[in-house]
Amino acid sequence: MQIHLQPKQEQLYDLLTATGPTVATIIGDGGAKGGGKSQGVDNCALLLAGELGNEYPGLKITIVRRVFADLKENHIDKMLDRYPELNNVYTDKDGLQFKNGAKIQFAYAETAGDVERKFRGGFESAFIFVDEAQQFTERELQDIQMACRWTKASTGLPPGFCKLVLLFNPGGKSADYIRRIFWTRKYLDNEFPHSYAFIHCFGWDNYEWFRGQVDIDEDSFYEIDSMCMRDEAEGACCRFHLFITQTSEGRKYNAFPAAIRSGYLLGNFDHFEGQYFAGAWDQEKCVITQQMAQEIIQPWWTRWMAQDWGFGDHDSHGWYASGKLSPTQWMQYFGGYTEWPMDVVIRYREQLVQNRAEGDLAMDIVQATPQMERKQIRRFFLSQDAFGQRAKQSGSHTVGQQFTDIMHRHGLPAPEPALQERVNGWRFMYTCLWQANLRNTNIDKERAEQGPAFFVTTECPQAISCIPMAIRDEDNLDDVERIAGAVWEDVTDEIRYGLASMLMPRGKAPKDVRARELYESIQGEVPEDVMTQRAMAMRQFQANEGTIRRASRAPRWR
């Protein structure tokens, strides 16, 4: 059986067979569509089974997809079609079982429960390939990584022998995680940079798209530069230009809208299909320096805070200021031309922590807010789960109630339930970002009145990195996908609370509806405790709404 590898597939195989204390054990093979990633996995798996299987009897290799139909179509069927002799060693139950004892097995996991059940127990495999890894969440990929081991090897294994390979396109449920470890390479305290390697794949790396369409043999094809800086009109001088001008697949990807083309054709991990704020978020326009923010924000501007609280999850907290700029002021700072005053909102500070006790978290907020600024903070919008039964991390008080005591002691407002209507909130946030794109343009009255322009300062790196990571919900394209544990979800939720709760026109549901939502969010097993907590929460709600009628006495004349 002759197995041929293209250059980037050879690069992957070299990484797979490398051993030593500092070799990469988590390998990313991703980028544009059509780069030959799936075929490369099949060929590398077969080579591992044939070459390492002789030296390490019982070697196990696993190929994973989210859905069995995709696994069968893209791997099992294609391997059996490409190499008919494999039909003699394949069974539905065992996968490919070779004479030397090596085994290539195929696994799928449609839900987080499936991932946990299959990979957290006794499952182990020396090599695991996760195809379309962006369809899994960060937590699911980490669960799969736990199974990348081989404790039953009959011979000792050299360090770095077992490998996890993630194959992916830009975007998806784990976009922020994949982008962090392979693209921006921003590692956490316990992550070692040498443990990660990335191969960036493109459609023009795959000769199969050119076979029969371009008059060039494979050896000559790979001698041409991958990509050059010459203009397309100057002629096809590199594989990229050959791809987009002389192959049907390349012309197809090149004709897609800019956001899709960026991911499908160019393998860009900053701009990709499915981004919720594509067209609105432009870092060059939506981000301003902290110095500019200090010059723009005036003492009379309205300031407030917002937080997305989560039990055992990330707590994202943001500080905001909003006010009007005269036409002269707008043109001074943002260029262009306007005859109309412009509403502006600025997120000028942020805090992101995890697993922080509620009292300590409240004090973090206090200490991050300068003394002179505290009296300027008008309101504090907190996610509604912080007022419910689930939020009782200690004692009988909710996080919201404990925050109230500390905030009041230090001259800050008590938290109130944030407006959490998702679709309208996301659309309002989109509009605010879209308005920031008015920088350096001529603005008419109609556009000026469509909403405030939302800017983020350079002191908010989490917002800058998380906003473009928000992806559309496939079942409701007007909503953002919910992905538990994703940092970008917590940060963007908090920004949505901060903007919509304070600024969205007629954004609030009727008071009785919001009161009912808060009332019903408080649940528990002890009816007496539930009723007490509900009563306290409703009293706080009424205080925030200004509906408590204070007792008054008639003047006593003497």
Strand and helix layout:
Elements (H helix, E strand, L loop, with lengths): L6 H11 L8 E6 L5 H19 L4 E6 L2 H15 L7 E2 L3 E3 L5 E6 L3 H8 L7 E4 L7 H9 L16 E6 L6 H10 L11 E6 L16 H6 L15 H8 L1 H7 L3 H7 L18 H4 E2 L1 H7 L5 E7 L5 E12 L1 H8 L2 E2 L3 E13 L3 H11 L2 H4 L2 E6 L16 H11 L5 E3 L4 H15 L5 E2 L1 H4 L4 E5 L3 H6 L5 E2 L2 E5 L6 H17 L7 H11 L5 H19 L13
Parallel strand pairs: 1-7, 1-8, 2-5, 2-6, 6-7, 9-17, 10-14, 12-16, 13-17, 14-15
Antiparallel strand pairs: 3-4, 4-5, 10-11, 11-13, 18-19
CATH topology of the largest domain: Nucleotidyltransferase, domain 5
Architecture per CATH nomenclature, i.e. the level-2 architecture of the largest domain = 2-Layer Sandwich
Please give the alpha-carbon distance between the first and last residues: 111 Å
* Biggest sheet strand line-up: 3-4-5-2-6-7-1-8
The gyration radius over C-alpha positions equals 28 Å
Count of separate structural domains: 3
Structural class: alpha/beta
Poorly predicted runs are 548-558
The outline comes out as: globular
